User: What shape does this take?
Amino acid sequence: MSTVIENPVEHFEKHFEELEAVTIRFAGDSGDGMQLTGTQFTNTSAVLGNDISTLPDFPAEIRAPAGSLPGVSGFQLNFSSHDIKTPGDQPNVLVAMNPAALKVNVPDLEDGGTIIVNTDGFTPENLKYAAYSSNPLEDGSLAGYRVHKLPISTLNMNALKGAVQLTRKEMDRSKNFFALGVLYWLYDRPIEPTIKWINAKFGKNPELAKANEIAVRTGYNFADTTEVFTTHYTVKKANIAPGKYRKITGNEATALGFVAASQLAGRALFYGSYPITPASDILHELARHKSFGVKTFQAEDEIAAVCAAIGASFTGHIGLTGTSGPGVALKQEAIGLAVMTELPLVIINVQRGGPSTGLPTKTEQADLFQAVWGRNGECPAIVVAPATPADCFQMAIEAVRLAFKYMSPVFYLSDGYLANGAEPWAIPEVNALPKIPVTFATDPASFMPYARDQQTLARPYAIPGTPGLEHRIGGIEKQNITGNVNYDPENHHLMVRLRQEKIDRVVQDVPPVEVCGEKTGKVLVLGWGSTYGSISTAVERLQSEGKSVSSAHLRHLNPFPANLGEVLAGFETVIIPEMNLGQLCTMIRAKYLVDAVAFSKVKGRPFQIREIVRKVEEYL
Amino acid sequence: MSTGSNGSNGSGNGNKPIVEQAISADSEAGSAVSGKVAPPPGQMKKADFVSDQEVRWCPGCGDYAILNNVQKVMPELGIPREKIVFVSGIGCSSRFPYYMNTYGFHSIHGRAPAIATGIKCANPELSVWVITGDGDALSIGGNHFIHAIRRNLDINYILFNNRIYGLTKGQYSPTSELGKKTKSAPMGTIDYPINPLSLAIASEATFVARSIDIDVRHLGSVVEAGARHKGISFIEVYQNCNIFNDHAFDYFADRSVRSDNVLYLEDGKPMIFGKERNKGIRMNGAHPEVVTIGEDGITEADLLVHNVNLADPSVAFMLARMEQPDFPQPVGIFRAVERATYEDLLVDQIDVAIAKSGPGSLEKLINGGDTWVVE
Ligand code: SF4
Assistant: This one.
């Protein structure tokens, strides 16, 4: 089979087709720059007015051997002329830079989908690395797809040779921009935003900037003139509410949300953290915002990170700590101390595949039990979970608000999918954001460390530096009201129930859960966290077919919204899709005695829309 | 289908009575708070630092003397009472904050330095004290010990070393001597002990000192010097646990032998000890040795002169390694050097960031990055 690229034919006739939505997956070696390529395509599409949703797929190893299966890095992007909430179930297009990338990703591609391969990457050595016994480009195994075979490295090298002062190796590294240029032509996107970005990014290295620019242009022009592509496509602007937007990942939105919370509360933010995937980006982002008075503390371990945050909370800062599941396991004793001392504290858990080290770069929702029940003793804490990458901003503010109002630790459960996934964010008006009231005790005559607010049962917040309020707190059981050390059985029984009642009362601050669709019917699909996009899209699809199905999504998991029981009672079947073995489902069954159905997927990957559709159809 | 009446997860019904108890009880019971503002710093007395809580250490425990001393030093420092915070971990010594009429945080095992770090970072104006024991600081909290010290926060860090676990009733600790027989080592320990001062010096401590519970004057002066040092002040205090490890420091306790067995380090002075004040430490090559003044032509001029300000920690380290019975046990200030504190560097970076780009604007922050407008 030949992959000969003829000289471009002049006046070759090309067709134009309009599509509603396209899902592309870029895949290559972790050193091939696929994340960057995908991000550029996304930014350009967002600015063009498409709705977008993206999900990178990182290998766990930083630099797995070139060409190896574990070294494959992917980036999936869904862009559309209508509202979308997920990065797409199945890619329509796969860009594969080598055999390993093809092998890992082809099973996900839709039947009849398009494959664009860099044939130069299909060396005998790389084929062996990818455990291919014969070359898939030649053995007919890709017959069910539309395969475009381009010698991307060669074409790119030919364009750069003599044009830039770089080594061969350096020149070759710009081949991802060539691929990007091809995709830009194919989907009718302008190359200018990327060229502008290249010049800003590589300004300090003009030769590199030049190489990348030439690569994009050459890729674009090549696609325009070659016979390989006979059709290109356009995806029109989506009908998006007017306003100012930016693309944001969950981790970015989380960091910005906590900075915003600090401004809204008028209290400095202290972030204690220890590097861990996939939460470290929050530390990186917050460390950049010192002009907001943000204090970041890279601790010696997870325990020190949370303890320092507790110390900062005790002193009147917003004590925040962030980690992933294994880190939470280490922090739990200290979180118990914050429950006992009734101090505000927020714990970010960007959940990943577990147990133990598990799948560090993959997503999972299996730490819900850990948040709700994972400490010694009766140790209730508030639990909230953002539903989308952009929602992370709002929920960060919510977490801080509840922590201060109820003087309690609050778990904020994000996950790998939210953390790295991106979507357009309608930038809010700063003035419209809710202020977070924080009141400190100051009156020595009336101060009792464990007196309680009538409505919230929160104890007074007295910070060091306040004259006359010198007092001692600690992890030993405290006497009601006075806060003295106390081992009396009746007092302990009372304090255990008071701490629980305080968290139960948070319900007065939890908005009712909304039902999307009819309030009664055959099936309710209930979710929490990052499953929102797949669930709501699946349910909307079924609703448009006239099916009796509704959805509801929980952003508050402890306590649940007050109307949840009533909502559940309106349906014959409640299905709960979770990336765990049914943790929310267990809680719902226990509390509401509802025969809810757990729909589990624990593969380190988000639910596909069609998986949920199929599951729901079983119950209709 | 049954549903919950509200959003509570797990609490029973009928909570009214407990809630009433919580919010209506009057405060006749003694409180953890004095309810009084302290007198101005110049007029404070020891009594102003004594809380109303009954001290619950075993009678005869060395902790009493240390508490007494710290309370005595407090008024000397001239720090407003509300600006003082005592933080502790778990163990007998860690009950300490309850007895101080200051802010206090009795935390969890080993973690006091980390809690104190957060307190000091949040408010560098506070005088922050960590009270810990040998198990708390060197076993379960060993990691925090190293890192809190290397960061050089301006924290006073007092380790009560009784070479035993007291609160859990007599297991060996990381400072127990090899071969010690305890409940958890009936045939004797097979763990080599750790030397707290060596570890503190290796962790880049800027102030390192040692004292003992029974030498009240010495202890008070070391604590005061530590409190005045800007940066981490690490003080090891030998503390007798008369219940589980009595006589551990007899070479101190017994006045008749103390001066022969203990070297009181004094800055700028030659290292002399002994009842007759005729013994000293001199360097023999790279090693210290005990010599007698007047013998073999040795004079005071041959002795090592103590200098707490040496940037190089080698001599301090060497002194920390000198142990009974081969050497007199050194006490006093081993090392006191200046170095920028963590909290100052932290606040500096914030100031620099603000000076460079102005105080953070939320408006600008959320509108940053690549934005686009949909009409
Ligand atoms: S057990 Fe030992 S250290 Fe603890 S209080 Fe009693 S005497 Fe003091």
Remarks:
- Chain A has a mean pLDDT of 95.
- Chain A has 20 helices and 23 strands.
- Chain A touches chain B through 113 residues (CB under 8 Å).
